[in-house]
Amino acid sequence: MKVRDFMITNVFTVKPSNTVKELLLVLKTNRIGGMPVVDDKGNIVGMVSDGDVLRYLIPKHMGIAGIAGVVYLSEYGELKDVVQEKLDTPVKEIMTKRNILFVSPDDDFESAMRLLSKHHFKKLPVVNGASRVIGVLSRGDIIQNITDKILML
Length: 153
Prior knowledge:
The structure is a single chain. By secondary structure, this protein is α+β, with helices and mostly antiparallel strands. It is built from five helices and six strands; from the N terminus they run αββαββααββα. It has one domain (3-152): CBS-domain. Helices cover 34% and strands 22% of the residues. It has a two-stranded antiparallel sheet. The protein has a two-stranded antiparallel ribbon with strand order 3-4. A two-stranded antiparallel sheet has the order 5-6.
């Protein structure tokens, strides 16, 4: 079996210049947990996930050493205020940019599953020879597809 037999071809993507707010709307509207980040030609330049968004939006705590120990202060204040300030941040600031792993549609499905498992990825972009995103291989969709095939036996 090949990756093309399991990949999703209706791929949602964002550009590095899209804002975190725009990203959140795409994630929520389409009930997905992440997506490839592509340039104007559709070439993959990164990946962004709901985990990246959460890590970015949650206020950071800064420790200040004092005589009686450590005191923790919030980055900006209330969660609502921190989130509101960060919504206009470009996706390029929070996306994974380096060591992006991907597969091609003709790759062996079993090796793609190993990549997902080994690296604990939820999604792998599927790119063609020109580095354009043409699909996504998702753990959830693989499980669904395998379950459907088993139940059909």
